[in-house]
Amino acid sequence: MTWNYSEKTTRLFMDAVQGRPGTHMGEIANPDGIGEHGSIACGDALRFTFRVERHPSDPTRDIIVEARYLTFGCTSAIAASEALCAIIEERRLTPIQALSITNKDIVEYLEGLPEQKIHCSVMGAEALQAAVFNWAQRRGVDLRALGVDITPEEREEGRVVCTCFGLTEPYLRRKIVELNLRSITDITNAVKAGGACMSCHHKPGGLQDLLDDIWGRQPTEFKTEVELPVAQLIARARGEDGLSPYQFAKKVERVLDEYVRPMLAQDGGDLEVVDIKDTLVYCRLKGACAGCVGANQTIKFMVEQVLKDRVDQRCRVIAV
Amino acid sequence: MPVIYLDNNATTAVAPEVVEAMLPYLEDQYFNPSSMYEAARGPARAIAEARATVARHLHCRPEEILFTSCATESNNTAIIGALRARPERRHVVTTQVEHPAVLEVCKFLVREGFDVDFLPVDGSGQLNVEAFVRALRPGQTLLVSVMHANNETGVLFPIAELARITKETDPGILVHTDATQTAGKLPLDLRGELRHVDLLSLSGHKLHAPKGVGALFLRRGAPVRPFLLGGHQESGRRGGTENVPYIVGLARALELAEATHAEDGERITALRDRLEGELTRRIPYLEVNGAGAPRLDNTLNVAVHFVEGEGMLYQLSARGICASSGSACTSGSLEPSHVLRAMGVPFTAVHGSLRFSLSRYTTAEEIEAVIEALPEIVASLRRLSPYWDEGARAPRPEGEALLRQAVEERRQRLAQQS
Questions:
Q1: Among B312, B314, B380, B382, which would you mutate to test the A interface (most chain A Cβ atoms within 10 Å of its Cβ)?
Q2: Reported ipTM
Q3: What is the mean pLDDT of residues A206-225?
Q4: A155 CB neighbour count, 10 Å cutoff
Q5: Which of B226, B272, B307, B309 is 20 to 30 A distant from A222 in Cα terms?
Q6: Is-catalytic flag, B322?
Q7: What's phi and psi for A120, nearest 5 deg?
Q8: Does residue B246 contact residue B22 with C-beta atoms inside 8 Å?
Q9: Chain A residue numbers touching B108 (CB-CB < 8 A)
Q10: B342-357 pLDDT, tens per residue?
Q11: Which residues, listed in sequence order, are joined to residue B71 by a DSSP beta bridge?
Q12: Where are the alpha helices (DSSP H) in A26-157?
């Protein structure tokens, strides 16, 4: 998997690892807010700290003047951390205003991130929320009273199943059980997974595999208008009057000879049985009747009725 | 900037001699080897000769070699073909560290209702032979599929021994090995040491032939139905017009490997050992994955604590150095390597793995370039890490605590297995 990072992402990353001036790598001693997100076990971890210019009387009017990060993670995680700090410092925001920075802002600042790296930008936003919460505690600000609801967006870490929407296996497993999702269509309707490129439907470890694993293997949903299988029809035909396919065919011919062909012969016509598949009888009109406008009607109604009455109620005649 | 290519377990440079051998069949010798006219004799003979060459290299009969499009196809053919031949046997034995080309096929079997044992490995990546023996079910086991060398760590499995045990348990159990990483690097003797192996997969592009060609050794009489159904090619065991130039290339590549093996082998081993020694000496908190196990001479897999692999790869790449990582961020799946997890690599290091794999084209200067570059790169990332104090060249207290926890977890995990 090759890198398709934007130039800006690459530049921010290289500046950070080379410790160039102007980067935000580091940790503020005695910060006014500290927040962490992720863990080394998950492969991404970020510690975010900020310092505010304190407002003399109203802490909600504190302005963040310095933001720093320490990040364990990949190229985009480090660049996203850099972006978060840069955005906050540039805009001179209060901590509460800073909460309006979303992962979308970070992605925009980075001039785009590959789809499978979007979670790196989410991590930055979540560390920020945690830091603001921490600041509020230190400064005695009641966030809830101000109508600020910090409930970190729930995102389980894990293998990404639906790459289009970035949905992970733990998340999907939980939703499948919680919402009793029984089919791929159910999943797509409920949580969008599998709704875009659809490649995750039947690939190994994809949506169908999750469903099979959780609910047990079910017959694959795939309805067509196929008739019952031939073997079943034969078994049923035998069950009724005990005719083997050979005997059934002979009886059809006998009935046709006795009741149908003489009638057709009066008009100089004849009838040929082309094939029989259990109770389906394939027929073709011959002689004077061939090409007759009413030929197919003749076969369908006249011949079929005779066979139904004299051979088997389930007989169907198909004109060839 | 010159490219320093140290990712030869992923793919290799095509040898100029191989290109030369292939060219006639890309130019005027384009005829279908199945055709009757005189002109088609050239390609037909080329395939026959290539088959004989591969057979000579593996010490088997020419008719026991099937040419395929890649090792993945060879593996699918071996496993799916075996179950098609004897659907009454419903049990398969494999390992947790197989390449996806085997692992995913085995997971598919599980979904189809088969019983599959995925055997664990120990901390150095080795298989527990007793666990292997316990897993075998005489009269029920269809197939054993165990790789010859691991592509990530280079750790070798004792295939000859496992195959013998299997056959003594029940000669009806088929033994398959994915030898993608060993073909061209180690002698493969299917009449001698590997005489109990029924199926062996290999790939051209790991041994200086191009991508798009592989082979499957299929021991005479082994019950395996075709996987790709089609024409009568490969004696009806693999449909599809033969890829003449690539088949010729594969055979030529095996010849070259054999001819240069003795001399290359020693030189590559020395380079790998120097790389391993210097990185271990210069970078604190670096582990060699698979240390202590028999390993391929060309492979070095290290895990760097408190650093994420992708950031290292990226900076190596910026210096022209090509390597790979088992880090989650490079796998496309957000999960670190299944091989390193199976080995119980501590979670503080499992995201920081790097694999360097050498070839006969690797030079001493290239290895020195890595030895110079990597310590700086690791330091640059550790300066950013919340778990590391680069000034002290040691973990911060919180990193230290995590490390203790990770090491303890590994100890318990491995204790559970034995």
A1: B314
A2: 0.70
A3: 72
A4: 15
A5: B226
A6: no
A7: -65, -35
A8: yes
A9: 204
A10: 999 998 999 999 999 9
A11: none
A12: 75-91, 95-98, 103-109, 118-139
A18-43 pLDDT, tens per residue?
988 889 999 999 999 999 887 787 77
**Mutation target among A74, A118, A155, A160 for the B interface, most CBs of B within 10 A:** A74
Model confidence band, residue A284 (pLDDT cutoffs 50, 70, 90): confident
Give pLDDT tens digits for B156-208: 999 999 999 898 888 899 999 999 999 999 999 999 999 999 999 999 999 99
Residues A109/A115/A120/A121 CA torsion (nearest 10 deg): 30
Q: How far is the C-alpha of A24 from the C-alpha of B384, rounded, in Å?
A: 10
Which tokens is A156 given?
A: 């389980």
- B397 or A152, greater pLDDT: B397
Give the tens place of pLDDT for each residue, B241-262: 999 999 999 999 999 999 988 7
pLDDT band at A218 (very low <50, low <70, confident <90, very high): low
A chain contacts of residue B107, beta-carbon cutoff 8 Å = 204-205
Distance from the Cα of B188 to chain A's closest Cα (Å) equals 32
Structural domains of chain B, with CATH: 16-257 (3.40.640.10), 261-417 (3.90.1150.10)
8 Å CB contact of B333 and A160: yes
Interchain contact, A45 vs B386, CB within 8 Å = yes
Rounded to the nearest integer, the mean pLDDT of chain A is: 83
Residue B74 and residue B216 in contact, taking contact as beta carbons nearer than 8 Å: yes
Using CA atoms, how far apart are residues B339 and B150, in angstroms rounded to an integer?
A: 9
Which has the minimum average pLDDT: A210-224, B18-32, B210-224, B238-252?
A210-224
Question: CA of B327: which chain A residue's CA is closest?
Answer: A43
User: Across all residues in chain B, what is the average pLDDT?
Assistant: 94
C-alpha A117/C-alpha A121 separation (Å) is: 8
Total residues found in chain B within this entry: 418
**Tokens representing residue A172 in the block:** 């999907």
pTM: 0.76
List CB contacts (< 8 A) between A160 and chain B: 333-334
Question: DSSP per residue over B324-376, as a string?
Answer: B---HHHHSSSS--HHHHHTT--TTTGGGEEEEE--TT--HHHHHHHHHHHHH
> What would the two tokens of residue B231 be?
């024409």
Which sign, positive or negative, has the C-alpha torsion B322, B323, B328, B333?
positive
User: The tokens of A41 are what?
Assistant: 């076990």
- β-pair type (B394-395, B388-389): antiparallel
Strand spans (E) along chain A: 33-39, 44-53, 63-72, 160-162, 167-168, 269-277, 280-287, 316-319
For a pLDDT cut of 70, what percent of chain B falls above it? 98
